[in-house]
Amino acid sequence: MIEAQNAQAVAAAGQTLSKIAESYLDAYARPKDAGGIGGRDGTRFHRINAWSRLLGDKVLAEITPDDIDDAMRTLATEPARVYSGRDADDNPIFRKKAGHRSGATLNRYQVALAALFTWAKRQRLVPRGFDSPTRHVEKNTETRGRVRYLTDDERTRLLVACVESPWPRLYVFVLMALTTGARRGELLGLRWCDVDLVRAEAILHDTKNGDRRVLVLLPQVIAELERFAPKDAVTSQALVFRSRLRPSQPYSTAKVFNEAVEAAAIKNFRFHDCRHCTASYMAQSGASLLEIADTLGHRQLRMVQRYAHLNTDSRRQLMTRIFANRV
Hints:
Elements lengths: L1 H11 L4 H13 L13 H13 L9 H13 L1 E8 L5 E9 L2 H20 L29 H12 L6 H11 L3 H5 L6 E2 L4 E4 L8 E4 L2 H10 L25 H10 L9 H12 L4 H8 L15 H12 L4
Antiparallel strand pairs: 1-2, 3-4, 4-5
Helix pairs in contact: 2-3, 3-5, 6-7, 6-10, 7-9, 7-11, 11-12
């Protein structure tokens, strides 16, 4: 039995990156209870396919750090692409945008490749003791990251514009984003059975990092949700923010949200910035980075480090209180 497994591993070790990438993406798309990885990152397919294009003809176990460096230089000079929804077959669509890939984006490509090597090692598709070449490739320098949050006046204007939107649920959709820090995709995946109107909670089963997360819903959010809740909300599998024409699909929110932002005369604000609003307001109110990370669903504190400067006043008050009678 062991000899057969070893022989299989030796044979598999000669497979090219493209061949192994196909198997990896198939496993990534399948849920865990079906023997797959159950991956939730929609960009993973695009990034792995990019590696197949650049290094696909090379045997996976023979790829060197220099090969990856060369491919990374190619990725750095190509036009950047941005996620633009899904097609009729539910495949992700990416369109070109001005400029080149940022250091942070290039690092995400490297992370995707590292995940492929890790999976291949677990599946015995590379020799035992194989050392992933990604470990010997330096990461790109990343900028601190964008922090754009609404002023009190901007927030008021945006919510008023949402109330006046032709889509009746835009107001509660944006209100939930601002007060929970949930991502667009997480909110669009919510079903009524995931929302507990009595406990004022909503469960996110399909988060970006795969962790289950509970959203705390404020009274204002509950009041709005109750306006749209079906009679069988407790057991209903219907999407909270469903499409009008195709109820089984989520509503396409980009157009109505952008129209509300324009109507509110707000500049340089994207839907994902609602998430920055949540974190920024928390930091300004004295919340710790751990509390912010827990709310946003980040596993690492470095992901919320960008908000540290916003709670300086709160930390000053804390330090003043602690050392008032000690120095």
